[in-house]
Amino acid sequence: MENKTLYIGDGELLVGEKGSSPRAVPTYPELCCHSLQDLKILGSRPVTPYRVSEETRRVYEESIIPFWNGRDLRSMIFRSLPEEWTQAFSAGVFTEFMEQRAPGHAILDDKIYRMGLADFKKRIMERRKRANSTSASQAFDEDQELQGMAICCDAVINFASRYAHLATTMARTEQRHQRKRELQRIAEVCHHVPAHPPRTFWEALQMYWFIHIGVTLEINTWDSLNPGRLDINLYPFYKNDIEAGRLTRDEAKELLKCSWIKFANQPAPPKVDVTMKQSATYQDFATPNLGGVDKHGNDAVNDLSYLILEVEDELRVMQPNTCVQISHRNPDKFLKRALKIIRTGHPKPSLFNTDIILQEQLRQGKTLEEARLGGPSGCVTISAFGKETTVLTGYLNWVKILEVTLNGGVDPRTKQRIGVDTGNPADFQSFDELIDAFTKQLTHFVNLKIHGNNIIERIFAEQMPVPFQSTLIDDCIKTGRDYNNGGAKYNTSYIQGTGLGTLTDCLTAIKYHVFDRKDIDFKELLKACENNFNGSYEIIRQILISKTPKYGNDDDYADNIARDLVEIYFKTVDGRLNTRGGYYRINLLPTTVHIYFGNLCGATPDGRKAGQPISEGVSPTQGADREGPTAVMRSVTKWDHTKTGGTLLNMKFSPEVLKTDEDLTKMVDLIRVFFRLGGHHVQFNIIDSETLRDAQRNPASYRSLLVRVAGYSDYFVDLHKELQDEIISRTEHRP
Predict the structure, then answer these.
(1) How far is the C-alpha of 692 from the C-alpha of 453, rounded, in Å?
(2) Which of 80, 622, 713, 716 has its CA 20 to 30 A from that of 591?
(3) Three-class SS of residue 562?
(4) pLDDT at 158
(5) pTM of the prediction?
(6) How many Å separate Cα 55 from the centre of its chain?
(7) Which residues contact 415 (CB under 8 A, 6 or more apart)?
(8) What is the DSSP code (8-state) at residue 217?
(9) Nearest Cα residue to 487 out of 502, 497, 472, 498
(10) What is the pLDDT of residues 382-430, one digit of tens each?
(11) 3-state helix vs strand vs coil in the chain, percent to 5
(12) CA–CA separation, 287 and 300 (whole Å)
């Protein structure tokens, strides 16, 4: 922080960059060392290229690669994991988030608006005087951690002081009166925060941004630091400034827009190798939460909530990943305001059910106040803001596990045995035998995944501490332990299940045709999958597609199987211990991994052909939901979302659905009913498929077209064609 190049752009009111200019992206070779070939690909690929200068290539070739190659955390992780884990990983049974990124989903509470970093440092120094440890070794480790926290507080304070000095220097030579005053004000703000708690709305926004830069510079998190309950936390500053005459509503909006532009100008560091396919997005998933309830359980919507929605509506940038929490205590007016943005085709904000989130948090052992002040981060995952490490460990490919089950533990793509021998499914006499076999395979791979995660957790705890991030999260100062080493009050690990719709449709097809109706022989069905439904097997495929119950149509035959599968997964994962003193939990989301997972799966018993995407989140299989949006929502809520830490439902509507105010009222009612039924989350693409196809043909004409991909939005023309095609293939609900 003493040597970083500083940047203040003309017209900026909030300052601070990770690099020497907006959109400059740091690399983290200690975590994952890019090769020269990686840098070449990043600079030349057609989708999301990163410009890499010749100077950067030279430094990498001469200094970084010779030192870090083989020493980075990624190399250490793959050396430490058993071959059985690596085989399953390569086969696409699961992914691993932390093989080149650090734990993400860190969300702030209101501490930084009540305390400055000087106050945090004082608390740290007082804790250093009190030894809580039971051994000299532990006492040494705790003191080192606390000393690191104190150093980091000084570093970020110094960073802000350098900005204050730069702004003062620029103001001396600035000829424009208004800009001179702005630069002087920036200097005043940076002299005060982050060393001291903010006093004004401007200072509060700048306080957050310095903290954001500090955390995301310290380590390459899976997603960036999240601002959490932004409207609740900032409202007192906004209200006081307005009442005191220090700020007008338009001035507050301008400051918020400056904040939004800061988020938009912070791409995530580039991934390497297979993770481009696992998660083909390069944004930091900063998720401001609006609405919901306050710590007393009352409606938390305020004037600032609406102002932030105005900013989202007017700017329409890809980041931040704005979401609204909707409680039964929130007015319909607030939900309708969010929907007015969404109906224009802008895919934000996403919508979350506060009442279900409260139940999810309480089930996990959070206090009522913590549950009320928490919420979602990243895509959809909940946490107690400011008090929890919420580590998403990677996706589990449910469809691949079924494929391995149908092949007696062997991966048909590689002919390697990667699972347990559960016998020849053609010999099974009942559907229950198949479910038992699938459960055994699932348990085997969950055990393997957790074993690997526990190894990785210890490597991070020992090799990659984050003392600045630890400073901000309860109870790291109290325990003297790092965020990555169980220092937080709550320490949760998630394994994301992927492909619920496809898995349900596969098992439904087998139960319906093989065991109940007995109109398709199991051996013949397996042979049809083996041959990718080519030739005469196309007849079987059409039966599977058109004459079989499907998840997402309010059909209990299929939906009950989905309910049972979620319960099986919950019992297999939930409550397992991690190495940080916390527990494993489940959530159901895909980012873009459903494309990658589909590439590694052969043809499946639902009629899906080899290599095609599997379903994403808890959404039905693409195109399988034919009975309208209410049927989808009823299917999705036939199982208990409170047993998860987050579920993701994507829906696509044609623009005609939301043309009038009456249409908007109907959509409000639809969402209210979905949430009363127990849904966790829903998000929308309000766009017709023909527009998306035209964007494929004429990308230059659709440069600003944002679409909902999974728990995030992205520019449609920046997505690879497989992902574009998958979004187009989703059912488009019409009037």
Answers:
(1) 39
(2) 80
(3) helix
(4) 98
(5) 0.95
(6) 33
(7) none
(8) H
(9) 472
(10) 999 999 999 999 999 999 999 999 999 999 999 999 999 999 999 999 9
(11) 50, 10, 40
(12) 17
Q: Is the pLDDT of residue 275 over 60?
A: no
The per-residue b/e assignment along 263-285, b for 16 or more CB within 10 angstroms, e otherwise, is bbbbbbbbbbebbbbbbbbbbbb
Token pair belonging to 25: 């992206």
pLDDT for position 367: 98
Residue 271: partners with Cβ closer than 8 Å, 6 or more residues away: 100, 101, 279, 282
SS3 529: helix
So what's the pLDDT on residue 276? 55
Cα–Cα distances in angstroms (integers) from residue 272 to residues 49, 87, 250, 437, in the given order? 13, 19, 43, 35
Q: 683 near 326, Cβ under 8 Å?
A: no
Query: Tokens 């005191």 sit at which residue?
Result: 244
3-state SS of 175-192? Answer: CCHHHHHHHHHHHHHHHH
Question: How many residues in total does the chain contain?
Answer: 735
**For residue 274, what pLDDT is reported?**
47
Are the beta carbons of 596 and 277 closer than 8 angstroms? yes
Contact 286, 223 (CB under 8 A): yes
Residue 716 has a pLDDT of 86
Contacts for 243 with CB less than 8 Å, ≥ 6 apart: none
Those residues whose C-beta lies under 8 Å from the C-beta of residue 714, and which sit 6 or more positions away, are 281, 283, 318, 706, 707
E strands, 68-140, where? none
pLDDT digits (tens, 9 = 90+) for 305-325: 999 999 999 999 988 999 999
Residue 232 DSSP code: H
**HEC letters along 299-361:** ECCCHHHHHHHHHHHHHCCCCCCCEEEECCCCCHHHHHHHHHHHCCCCCCCEEEEHHHHHHHH
Cβ atoms of 157 and 194 closer than 8 Å:
yes
- The pLDDT value recorded for residue 723 is 83
pLDDT tens digits, 662-711: 999 999 999 999 999 999 999 998 988 999 999 999 998 998 888 877 76
The one-letter amino acid at 237: F
| Token duo for residue 341 | 């943005």
| Residue 438 predicted with pLDDT over 60 | yes
| Residue pLDDT, tens place only, 471-481 | 999 999 999 99
Q: In what order do the strands lie in the sheet with 350-353?
A: 289-291, 323-326, 350-353, 681-686, 650-653, 732-733
Question: What are the DSSP E strand ranges found in 233-315?
Answer: 289-291
Buried b vs exposed e over 611-645: b needs ≥16 C-beta within 10 Å?
A: ebbbbbbbbbbbebbeeebebbbbbbbbbbbbbbb
Query: Pseudo-torsion of CA 9, 12, 14, 19, nearest 10°?
Result: -20
